[in-house]
Amino acid sequence: MAAHALALGWGPLRLGSSGCLRGRTPRGPSARGSGLPAPVVLGRSATASSRTEAPGSDLYCVELLRKRDYEGYLCCLLLPAEARSSAFALRAFNVELAQVKDSISQKTIGQMRMQFWKKAVEDIYSGSPPHQPVAIELWKAVKRHNLTKRWLMKIIDEREKNLDDKAYQNIQELETYAENTQSSLLYLMLEVLGIRDLHADHAASHIGKAQGIVTCLRATPYHISRRKVFLPMDICMLHGVSQEDFLRKNQNKNVRNVIYDVASQGHLHLKQARSFQKSVPVKAFPAFLQTIYSGPFPLWFNSSIWKFTPALEFTRWKVPLPAWTAPPRTSI
């Protein structure tokens, strides 16, 4: 069955009358039935002379992001024109990996898909990407910006480890996952912007950890709907809260304290990232656009961007609050 699925092609992209850059599609689990064709390998490679065999691969990435990661989609639109297509490719790659866990019934199928992406990255760096839209656009981005292969492989490896439906043992495990996924993606985004700076990397590391922690919180309502809880077990045990308390949507003080402690760790990383504000090159700031949110803390960026915040809200740091009242979010 899995082998048959991997042999299927990806159909033509149908954007409809509104076009790929107009209209808003709901985020989170509700977007999963959108009808977007699942891109898979055709069993052949695309060389430099054959890349035109995949028309619309750039639009495919745009539409994939618009449907599955709307915040990332908007942030890419705000990037400099020369970096935009590569940013779409990177975030589409991240979406492809993130949605594997939620779309499989068996771990072995997920491992097969991760293996495909590992080989795809190897082929991309050898100049022969698989005939798959995201892989082709990623190959173009690698050629254009000389992206570091290590960061791409770290994202795949960490996503593969996360295929097990297990809660994080402690907050450090969650931070490690966030560092290897979200932070690695930010390192690549910085390279797309032409930034290779130690201070920017330090800021990206902390911002990525903050994003990963907050995404874990925002995904809690979705996970609860599937009768799963992934919040760090050490913090839950500290406050005497069980997974059943979350599944029953208990709103007592102990549950609120768990949410508060997890969110506070994310806020701590955000404060540490801000300590590099004066050292980070201004050109690097667009890579961190997804840190825009509503709350009592000042923005890093020009206030003219504030008009985008209703769609870009990363979290509402109004804690403590029950986890299921946070904006719905999957594992992206």
UniProtKB/TrEMBL annotation:
Catalytic activity: 2 (2E,6E,10E)-geranylgeranyl diphosphate = 15-cis-phytoene + 2 diphosphate
GO biological process: carotenoid biosynthetic process
Pfam family, one: SQS_PSY
Keywords: Carotenoid biosynthesis, Membrane, Mitochondrion, Mitochondrion inner membrane, Transit peptide
Record's GO cellular component terms: mitochondrial inner membrane
Entry's EC annotation: 2.5.1.32
Subcellular location: Mitochondrion inner membrane
Function: Involved in the assembly of mitochondrial NADH:ubiquinone oxidoreductase complex (complex I) at early stages. May play a role in the biogenesis of complex I subunit MT-ND1.
Family indicated by similarity: Belongs to the NDUFAF6 family.
Protein name listed in UniProt: NADH dehydrogenase (ubiquinone) complex I, assembly factor 6
Native source species: Phascolarctos cinereus
Gene (name only): NDUFAF6
